[in-house]
């Protein structure tokens, strides 16, 4: 008994990431990351490429189903491989070190900074614009508020894992309240017989089959983020139970809410009015919620902040695991000795995002990011199918039906192939940026051909940063 007590005390004092994420924080983590700016922006893109109310609602429902299929695949991966790191870990375990390194390289060279910059600028815009209406808000003020939002999120995630988790729960409650605030007036109006915008719902003169994949692309963007809980597997309490439950509950909830939000939009706005609006939620509020219309931009800003917090909570864990596997500098696999947070990995993203926000030239990189993100997701689920075939007896606490896994993988590769056809310039640039990681991998990871003086200088800088940041290697294996 004394030995066990001493061992428990030692483990509590040791430097390692704690299992502190239960079912409710897990649900909040997924829901809060998925529900960002997408549902307030993407309806215009979906309608533009479908041409009809009925088909656009069908696309929203199917995008939810496809995203749920992907989330279920990642539920199997998250319970099969107990390491954190999400995409990186699954590619490493199923397809090998080079694809995993390329995923890590792409994530931190352009995917994560671009996505975080886009969300933070959306946050800044919705916070600032109400103060300058009807004039145009100064871009410098929007950028300043965006950087303040990023700084707040970085500070929270650097200070405490539990604080970041509680912040995510709070922000998720607020943003789901925003969705309810949109859904309820729309459903009430529909109940009163306001159905004129749903007459001949599938009639369209502008629809062409080639536009349909682009509609799905817009919808899937709004559902993005369902994979973030897999980035923190080692910090989830009872992951075999909580990861699948959190994923299923979150995705069903988000899908139902998204479809109902779009029904509410079309109840209060004609398709033409929706296409004319640059801020669909704000236009809706001016029609249906005149007394509280000024609150809606703030609620949208909170939604963006929640998505930003989820990204900064999850993505650094990929860097943390990559460094632990020897594919990134060891400094980034270290944890703050008192805060028990992966401080170097969290801080690494901060200057990249700030620089991109300050420049404001991120929209082209968003296109780059989408191509690479879907390519690696497709590779991860393909790797899952290959791993199943090669190791049929490997323990899998949660196993997704084969049809679901195959369907999702084929659709992902179709999206990637279509983007290569429809936008070869941006997708080619994305491919080229990703492939720049190949020589980096062979020089620094595979063969370590760096000159001795370079390694010595790098090790010295790492030691000084370790002392300055008060970080150390993890002392307890958490997988």
From TrEMBL:
Highest taxon of source: Eukaryota
GO cellular component, one term: membrane
Any Pfam family hit: AA_permease_2
Keyword annotations: Membrane, Transmembrane, Transmembrane helix
Membrane topology: Multi-pass membrane protein
Keyword Cytoplasm set for record: no
One Gene Ontology molecular-function label: L-amino acid transmembrane transporter activity
Transmembrane intervals: 21-41, 53-75, 109-128, 140-161, 173-194, 214-233, 245-268, 288-308, 341-359, 365-386, 398-421, 427-445
Subcellular location: Membrane
Family matches, as PANTHER family: AMINO ACID TRANSPORTER, CYSTINE_GLUTAMATE TRANSPORTER
Protein name per its UniProtKB record: Cystine/glutamate transporter
Species annotation: Chanos chanos (Milkfish)
């Amino acid at each position: 008994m004394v030995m066990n007590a001493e061992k428990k005390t030692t483990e509590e004092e040791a430097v390692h990431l704690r299992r502190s994420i239960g079912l409710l924080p897990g649900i909040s983590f997924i829901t809060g990351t998925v529900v960002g700016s997408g549902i307030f922006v993407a309806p215009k893109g979906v309608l533009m490429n479908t041409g009809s109310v009925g088909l656009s609602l069908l696309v929203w429902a199917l995008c939810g189903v496809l995203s749920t299929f992907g989330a279920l695949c990642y539920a199997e991966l998250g319970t099969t491989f107990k390491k954190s790191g999400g995409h990186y870990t699954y590619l490493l375990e199923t397809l090998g070190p080079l694809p995993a390194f390329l995923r890590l390289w792409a994530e931190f060279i352009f995917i994560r900074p671009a996505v975080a910059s886009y969300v933070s600028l959306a946050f800044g815009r919705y916070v600032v614009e109400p103060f300058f209406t009807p004039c145009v808000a100064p871009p410098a003020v929007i950028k300043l508020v965006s950087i303040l939002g990023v700084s707040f999120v970085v500070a929270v995630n650097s200070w405490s894992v539990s604080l970041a988790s509680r912040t995510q729960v709070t922000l998720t409650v607020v943003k789901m309240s925003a969705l309810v605030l949109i859904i309820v007036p729309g459903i009430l109006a529909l109940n009163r017989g306001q159905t004129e915008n749903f007459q001949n719902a599938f009639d369209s003169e502008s629809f062409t089959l080639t536009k349909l994949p682009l509609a799905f692309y817009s919808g899937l963007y709004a559902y993005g983020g369902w994979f973030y809980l897999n980035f923190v597997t080692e910090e989830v309490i009872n992951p075999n139970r909580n990861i699948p439950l959190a994923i299923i509950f979150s995705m069903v909830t988000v899908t139902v809410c998204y479809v109902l939000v779009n029904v509410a939009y079309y109840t209060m706005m004609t398709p033409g009015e929706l296409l004319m609006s640059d801020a669909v939620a704000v236009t809706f509020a001016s029609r249906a919620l005149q007394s509280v219309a000024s609150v809606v931009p703030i609620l949208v800003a909170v939604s963006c902040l929640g998505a930003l917090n989820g990204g900064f909570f999850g993505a650094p864990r990929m860097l943390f695991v990559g460094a632990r596997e020897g594919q990134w500098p060891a400094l980034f696999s270290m944890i703050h000795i008192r805060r028990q947070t992966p401080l170097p990995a969290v801080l690494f993203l901060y200057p990249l995002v700030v620089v991109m926000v300050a420049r404001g030239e991120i929209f082209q990189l968003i296109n780059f990011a989408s191509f690479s993100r879907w390519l690696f997701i497709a590779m991860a689920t393909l790797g899952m199918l290959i791993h199943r075939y090669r190791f049929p007896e490997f323990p899998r606490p949660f196993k997704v039906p084969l049809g679901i896994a195959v369907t999702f993988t084929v659709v992902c590769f179709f999206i990637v192939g279509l983007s290569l056809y429809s936008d070869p310039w941006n997708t080619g640039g994305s491919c080229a940026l990703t492939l720049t990681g190949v020589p980096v991998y062979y020089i620094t990871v595979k063969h370590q051909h760096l000159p001795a003086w370079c390694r010595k200088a790098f090790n010295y800088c790492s030691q000084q940063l370790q002392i300055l940041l008060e970080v150390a290697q993890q002392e307890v294996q958490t997988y």
